[in-house]
Specification:
The complex is a heterotrimer. Chain A has two domains: about 80 residues, Roll (Ubiquitin-like (UB roll)), CATH 3.10.20; about 80 residues, [2Fe-2S]-binding domain (DNA polymerase, domain 1), CATH 1.10.150. Chain A is built from six helices and five strands; from the N terminus they run E-E-H-E-E-E-H-H-H-H-H. In chain A, helix 2 packs antiparallel against helix 5 and helix 3 packs across helix 5. The longest helix of chain B is centred in the C-terminal third of the chain and has 20 residues. Chain B has eleven helices and 14 strands. In chain B, strand 13 and strand 14 form a beta hairpin. By secondary structure, chain B is of the alpha+beta class. Chain C folds into four domains: about 200 residues, Aldehyde Oxidoreductase, domain 3; about 160 residues, Aldehyde oxidase/xanthine dehydrogenase, molybdopterin binding domain (Aldehyde Oxidoreductase, domain 4, 2-Layer Sandwich), CATH 3.30.365.10; about 200 residues, Aldehyde oxidase/xanthine dehydrogenase, molybdopterin binding domain (Aldehyde Oxidoreductase, domain 4, 2-Layer Sandwich); about 150 residues, 2-Layer Sandwich (Aldehyde Oxidoreductase, domain 4). In chain C, strands 3-5-1-12-9-10-11 form a seven-stranded mixed beta sheet, with helices on both faces. A five-stranded mixed beta sheet of chain C has the order 7-15-14-13-8, with helices on both faces. Chain C is globular, with a radius of gyration of 27 Å. The chains are: A alpha+beta, B alpha+beta, C alpha+beta. Chains A and C meet through helix 2, helix 3, helix 4 and helix 5 of A and helix 1 and helix 17 of C.
Chain lengths: ~170, ~270, ~775
């Protein structure tokens, strides 16, 4: 067992874990943040995507112990209190989810796309950048629409607050 | 995963010390090959030496005519680096098309190069650009470094610290992705430096990354897409699997080579 | 129309929990004291187990129990069942071998269950599994669908020639006669590729046992928890139904694969009592590939007879269907009654004859996957029709319209009585959406850029609802396929609806609430939909076969009728009027011709306080239940048109346009319906271009992860243009036909027809991978050069 201290959704967390513990296990089993899911074992499906220090990563392919001092944001930490994040709102508004299983990873990936590519996203860019997230329900049609709309809404919000993209996301 | 002891040294020197002292120790870079392998219990190191805290393995800088990239630079860092984009845009392009965005945030150039997966992208760039791999012990040319499928010249206890890419006057990369895994089914890197042209192929070789001398000769005469017209790679020695047989892969080498030249020449 | 009523694109009520990470899936459930199960699986496709030595493993850290098939047998736990009896041509019942939850002396596919290890942690269970020594005597494997019946090796002693049944449907003599009279016969050999459903949530189960009450609880990823309880109780013998509660919480997609009762949940719930601890198992993706029921896997020869004018005269089909190593829960129905009755498509075909041989192989069991039988039928019909049109020199759209059924009801030669439809209307609309007139120019533009463009049609029909019970019973189903509903009105007028349907992405919490909101005139937020728990919902048949709208909502409709009728009685008492004089609309009971009213909430309150009525005349309370059994299958139908552009240099096929026009009858929530269409098309495109489950000759699954099994990703797919036409379904009160499977049924032939159009030749196998298309395109280019 070994100890790791990090920040999860803005709160300091110290956990004593088996070195084998993956970030997704730390989140789901130790912290009971079960919004982050596991959908494959080959680091492809993206159901487990969270942000580490503002970057989207696959939490199934990251050791918890390697995150000493890091800041992790999960789907549970995306909303601002009871106010949903614009990307969450966009997924609901545009029916970007059906069974909901890939959704947390999809939303975290979508926010990351906006962080990297800005608020005006065309369809081809969104489709290419969703390469690391598999959805079996929606055929991606409405996810693509949701990401574009969510990006635009993040832009609007950021304009109002005069923030650069990355701050608006986290 | 099988149980292991975890180490997180702060410098490459400390990492090398652990590697030397601990029996059956393995280096963990971005972890995007090693961790899935360990999860499937196909690798079982007793000690895992995580390089993620080694600040001296990070960073990207311009040194004279070289772009020097720290072994722990992530694919995203290389793809987004103003230095790389300016000096060797094809290298940034390559890095920006490895895996997917999340993978690029964790996967590192050092990890990719040390693993020498036959379908990885970076080996093609190193070989085409005549990169120099610096380890904690020595310097190796790319020609010396890649020795076979998943095999490199790295010895026990040796850690890649940085990779220097001499800038090319023209370079391009084109990849045909495996539709399922998104690794390179065939990737071709072309680079021209002075009179030397290199054409390297990843994803297709039974022995890993290799050069295509006929294409190099054709492009040395004139560095243009047209120079490759009618040039076909032979299917001997080319990989075959359920996604692509040797004939199709060999054909794609020609197609990707042309696309890479087109990118290199801006056409 | 209210803002939340029928026909409105109401945003989903369930979404809030999913977009905030508060969904509640089976793997999210942890019971106090929970242990973990790991299944030791066969590495061989076919072998006799000569010994299992678990002595060392049993003593390893954390191990609570190691069990094999003998332990289940000793506890009188029966094998898994197939709930649909098929009889062969000669009248003999299908030849089914036993299907033990844990192997009894023999393993029959890679991934078959040899033993279960229950331990404190999953890692400990896996460690122990590696310490178990199993001696196998490896037998030759039967893998190939087409030749399984000729194989020397027999998968089950009960099934000589590896043949489960030789079944047929239709009129053989009339069909033969029609073929003799035909002017033209189109022939095709078709392989319908084997697929893995791959719901993103892997299967999982948590078994729990309350020693005090002797009650088992199983949390599981099921599309039909009541059927699971029925099978686990009545057939497998875990416990009587009143001592077994099955809960299917949020389920992350099913597509058929979570209908079935599998070994893992059976073993988990049984083992919970055995080790005295809750037992959890969650599949990893590799296990899912190996042991989830696969789909499709047909090999077919088909022929279509036409006369001189291009009128279709007859169709004959000979299919071999691979059912895998064991008969999964509904496997036998898929290549029979869910397949051959759809072979008439949208066409007036006087004579049809289909023969289906079902075979055992040493591969994972094959059962229903989105569409189940109907995609296979549609692929046969729509490929034949397309090729016939081309062979006859006719425009494929016009050829289809020439042969469409236009009078309803229409009795096909293969059981089905189509009740309503307007196929030409869907075709016309689809032609407009795709701009069929402009295809010539678009083809020329592509050609100028060195690309090949093609267009392909699919006029599909499906039979959904998978009901009425009498019909499915006569065809061999072991269960009735009605649905139940209970509408509980609370004293303040809020409503809980308990339904036997199960939502695993379909949005029932919204659409079902829309129906209630619409009919009772109450806000949608006042309505909660409860499903997936056998302790709450008395009985139900679950969700598959696009049945939740047509059957599940019709049950709610019927229960709402009863609630309104009871409400009228209450209102009559309260308003001191004659019951016959009470009207109900927009949430208000009103005495006809007066201004005396009682709103729904007040009515509910009066029903519960019951101060104003005499108990002899009227029972207190407002709660009604209904079982609904429809009078016919429903027949959703439509036209999908796919336009592709092929790069002959690489063989890459890009889908440039997709027009989908579907007739689902009346639509409750168009947003959700369109979402179902999108998802179905994506799975159909996956089948046509990307996906294939491949076994090697030794029976090893060589596509056992997403590294090799190609799942459709966002950049593989286009955006879709979806339109609708409406002919209400006459056999249920809401006029709904069902929409869940349409896309997966329609899409594959549309894609392949488009590719073969672009290539200018008549066949390419699915999946049409870049390599296959490149190879075919070389022939095309050679031919074009010669021209």
């Amino acid at each position: 067992m070994a100890t790791v201290s990090l920040t999860v959704n803005g709160k300091p967390v110290t956990a004593n874990v088996d070195p084998r513990t993956l970030l997704v296990q730390l989140l789901r089993e130790n912290l009971r943040l079960t919004g982050t899911h596991v959908g494959c074992d080959t680091s492809q499906c993206g159901a487990c995507v969270v942000h580490i220090d503002g970057l989207a990563v696959k939490s199934c392919t990251t050791l918890a112990l390697s995150l000493e001092g890091a800041s992790v944001t999960t789907i549970e930490g995306l909303a601002n209190g009871t106010t949903l994040h614009p990307m969450q709102e966009a997924f609901r508004e545009h029916h970007g989810l059906q069974c909901g299983y890939c959704t947390p990873g999809m939303i975290m990936a979508a926010v990351d796309i906006v962080n990297r590519r800005g608020y005006a996203l065309d369809e081809a860019t969104i489709r290419e950048d969703l390469d690391g997230n598999i959805c079996r329900c929606t055929g991606y049609h409405n996810i693509v629409k949701a990401v574009a709309a969510g990006a635009e809404a993040m832009g609007g919000q950021s304009m109002a607050r005069k923030e650069p993209p990355r701050q608006a996301a986290e | 995963m099988y149980a292991f002891t975890y180490h997180r040294p702060a410098t490459a020197r400390q990492a090398a010390g652990l590697l030397a002292k601990k029996e059956d120790a393995k280096l963990l870079a971005g972890g995007h090959t090693l961790l899935p392998t360990m999860k499937q219990r196909l690798a079982s190191p007793t000690h895992l030496v995580d390089l993620s805290a080694c600040a001296d393995l990070k960073g990207i800088e311009r040194k004279g005519r070289n772009v020097v990239i720290g072994a722990m630079a992530t694919h995203a860092e290389v793809a987004d680096s103003a230095i790389v984009k300016e000096a060797i845009p094809a290298l940034a392009f390559l890095a920006g098309h490895i895996g997917d965005p999340h993978v690029r945030h964790r996967g590192t150039i050092g990890g990719s190069v040390a693993n020498n997966d036959p379908a990885a992208d970076y080996p093609a760039a190193l070989l085409a650009l005549s990169a120099i791999v610096t380890t904690n012990k020595r310097k190796l040319t790319a020609d010396e470094f890649f020795t076979g499928l998943y095999e490199t010249a790295l010895e026990e206890g040796e850690i890649i610290t940085k990779i220097a890419f001499p800038a090319a006057s023209k370079a391009g990369y084109a990849k045909f992705r495996n539709p399922a895994s998104r690794y390179a089914l065939v990737g071709v890197f072309v680079a021209k430096r002075g009179s030397e042209v290199r054409v390297t192929v990843t994803g297709a070789g039974e022995g890993g990354v290799f050069r295509w001398p006929e294409a190099e000769a054709a492009l040395s005469a004139r560095f243009a897409v047209k120079s490759l017209d009618g040039l076909k790679h032979k299917a001997d020695g080319i990989n075959a699997d359920m996604h692509a047989d040797a004939e199709y892969r060999a054909h794609l080498i020609g197609v990707m080579a042309k696309q890479a030249v087109a990118q290199a020449t801006g056409k | 129309m209210s803002a939340t009523g029928i026909g409105v694109a109401v945003r989903r009520k369930e979404d809030h929990r999913f977009i905030t990470g508060q969904g509640h899936y089976t793997d999210d459930i942890n019971r106090p004291g929970q242990a973990h199960a790991y299944f030791l699986r066969s590495p061989h496709a076919h072998a006799t187990i000569t010994s299992i030595d678990a002595k060392d493993a049993a003593g390893m850290p954390g191990v609570l129990g190691i069990f094999t098939g003998d332990d289940l047998t000793a506890d009188k736990v029966g094998g898994l069942i197939c709930g649909w009896m098929i009889h062969s041509k000669d009248g003999s019942p299908m030849k089914a071998g036993p299907h033990p939850a844990l192997a009894l002396g023999k393993v029959r596919y890679v991934g078959d269950h040899v033993a279960v290890i229950v331990a404190e942690t999953l890692a400990q269970a896996r460690d122990a599994a590696e310490a178990i020594t199993v001696d196998y005597a490896v037998l030759p494997a039967v893998v190939d669908t087409a030749t399984a019946a000729q194989a020397k090796t027999q998968v089950h002693a009960e099934a000589p020639g590896n043949t489960v049944f030789n079944w047929h449907l239709g009129n053989k003599d009339e069909t033969e006669k029609a073929f003799k009279l035909a002017k033209h016969v189109t022939k095709l050999d078709i392989v319908n590729n084997r697929l893995v459903p791959n719901a993103m949530e892997p299967r999982a189960a948590v078994g729990d046992y309350d020693r005090g009450d002797g009650v088992f609880t199983l949390y599981t990823t099921s599309q039909n928890p009541h059927v699971a309880r029925l099978v686990l109780s009545a057939f497998i013998g875990i416990a009587p139904e009143n001592k077994l509660r099955v809960i299917a919480p949020d389920v992350g997609g099913g597509f058929g694969s979570k209908i079935f009762i599998y070994a893992e949940e059976t073993v988990c719930v049984w083992a919970a009592k055995k080790v005295g601890r809750p037992v959890k198992w969650t599949s990893d993706r590799t296990e899912a590939f190996l042991s989830d029921a696969h789909g499709r896997d047909h090999v077919t020869h088909a022929e279509l007879a036409t006369d001189a004018e291009g009128k279709i005269l007859a169709l004959r089909v000979k299919t071999t269907a691979n059912l895998g190593a064991y008969l999964s829960t509904f496997s036998s129905s898929v290549p029979t009654y869910l397949y051959a009755p759809l072979l008439s498509g949208q066409y007036d075909i006087p004579a049809i004859y289909a023969e289906v041989d079902a075979v055992y192989t040493n591969t994972a069991p094959v059962d229903a996957y989105r569409g189940a039988g109907r995609p296979e039928a549609t692929f046969v019909v729509e490929r034949l029709v397309e090729v016939a049109a081309r062979e006859l020199g006719k425009d494929p759209a016009k050829f289809r319209m020439q042969n469409y059924i236009r009078k309803f009801p229409h009795q096909t030669p293969v059981i089905m009585m189509y009740d309503a439809g307007n196929y030409a209307a869907s075709m016309k609309k689809a032609l407009e959406i795709i701009d069929y007139k402009g295809i010539g120019k678009r083809k020329r533009d592509s050609a100028r850029n060195g690309k090949l463009r093609g267009i392909g049609f699919s006029s599909y029909i499906e039979a959904c609802g998978i009901a009425p019970s009498a019909a499915v019973g006569s065809l061999g189903a072991g269960v009735g396929l009605w649905e139940s509903a209970e509408v509980r009105v609370n004293p303040v007028g809020t409503v809980e609806v308990l339904t036997g349907s199960h939502s695993h992405g379909q949005g029932h919490e919204t659409t079902f609430a829309q129906l209630v909101s619409d009919r009772l005139g109450i806000p949608i937020d006042n309505v909660s939909i409860i499903h997936g728990d056998t302790d709450k919902v008395q009985m139900g048949m679950g969700t598959y076969g696009s049945r939740s709208g047509a059957v599940g909502m019709s049950a709610i409709f019927k229960a709402l009728d009863k609630v309104i009728a009871k409400g009228k009685k209450v209102a009559a008492h309260v308003l001191e009027a004659d019951e016959a004089d009470i009207d109900f609309s927009d949430g208000t009971f009103k005495v006809k011709g007066t201004d005396r009213t009682l709103d729904f909430g007040s009515c509910a309150l009066q029903a519960y306080v019951a101060h104003k009525f005499n108990g002899q005349e009227l029972e207190p309370g407002l709660k009604e239940g209904a079982f609904y059994d429809p009078t016919n299958f429903t027949f959703p139908a439509g036209v999908h048109i796919c336009e592709v552009e092929i790069d002959p240099e690489t063989g890459v096929t890009r889908i440039e346009r997709w027009a989908a026009v579907d007739d689902f009858g009346n639509v409750i929530n168009p947003m959700i319906v369109e979402g179902q269409v999108h998802g179905g098309i994506a799975q159909g495109i996956g089948q046509a271009l990307l996906e294939a489950a491949r076994y090697n000759a030794d029976g090893q699954l060589v596509t056992a992860s997403f590294m090799d099994y190609c799942m459709p990703r966002a950049d593989d797919l286009p955006s879709f243009q979806v339109g609708m036409t409406v002919t209400p379904c006459p056999s249920n009160p809401l006029g709904i036909k069902g929409c869940g499977e349409a896309g997966a049924i329609a899409a594959p032939p549309a894609v392949i027809n488009a590719i073969t159009d672009a290539l200018g030749h008549e066949d390419i196998a699915m999946p049409a991978t870049p390599q296959a298309v490149w190879r075919a395109a070389q022939k095309t280019i050679g031919r074009l050069a010669a021209e």
